[in-house]
Write a structure and sequence with these properties.
elongated; 4-stranded antiparallel β-sheet; single chain; mainly alpha
Length: 237
């Protein structure tokens, strides 16, 4: 049995059978012990480690299966790293902005008309919720907008990383957005830049223009940072 957990997982794949849903069913524990030349206790300890990170599941009455892990793995990693002080909100936000800049470009290349309509509807929802004073709902629409960019690109690596970063920043994002809304003066139609800066991103994606999408998403982050920075500087110590 290999020392590293990932090498052990690869060994198990070779000792499993594919299922229609994409998972793989392991051979019985007794056979695994014999094939890997390990004790049942050592085997179960390793299996429990894989179960903890979501790579393995035990289905009562059916057997033990290897599966693709869900976003909980990445969420736990980033949340724990932040809580331990190895990452701070600024570093996570910077990484998220870099990632979303790339994703916006790819979304512009891949988006359909229906994708653009869904994004525009989410921005409309932000505007309407902010005007109604429902800032929690506006924030949820904002988060959904950015998550939808990743859905359009449909790259599991990007999606997993985004999920972890967004979760780790979720509370901070709620607070920053609330500060921005409080600091802004709505336009003649009662709309705030915090919401409307998303429209150019939608326009670029609807036009399948990757260069415009890159510029629009960068401008989105720049404006939002300026608003929240000004607010933070005005706040009492």
């Amino acid at each position: 049995m290999h020392d590293t957990l990932e090498a052990f997982a690869i060994q198990l794949i070779d000792l499993s059978h594919p299922e229609p849903d994409g998972s793989r069913r392991l051979i019985p524990e007794r056979e695994l012990c014999a094939r890997l030349d390990v004790s049942r206790g050592a085997l179960r300890e390793r299996l429990s480690q894989l179960e903890y990170i979501g790579v393995l599941s035990r289905r009562q009455g059916h057997g033990t299966y290897l599966q693709a892990p869900g976003p909980d793995v990445i969420r736990t990693y980033f949340t724990t790293m932040r809580a331990l002080g190895f990452l701070d909100s600024t570093e996570i936000a910077e990484a998220r902005e870099m990632l979303e800049t790339v994703v916006a470009v790819q979304a512009a290349l891949r988006a359909t008309a229906a994708d653009a309509e869904r994004l525009r509807a989410l921005v409309d929802e932000m505007v309407a919720c902010t005007a109604a004073g429902d800032h929690d709902a506006a924030t949820e629409a904002d988060l959904a907008f950015h998550a939808d960019l990743f859905r359009i690109v449909d790259n599991p690596v990007f999606t997993m990383v985004h999920t972890g970063l967004a979760y780790a920043l979720q509370q901070a994002m709620h607070e920053r957005r609330a500060r921005a809304i409080a600091a802004e003066t709505p336009d003649a139609d009662g709309r705030t830049a915090t919401d409307t800066i998303h429209y150019p991103v939608v326009d670029a994606i609807a036009a399948n223009d990757p260069d415009a999408a890159r510029d629009a998403i960068r401008r989105h982050f720049e404006i939002h940072s300026l608003i929240t920075l000004d607010t933070a500087e005005e706040a009492p110590a």
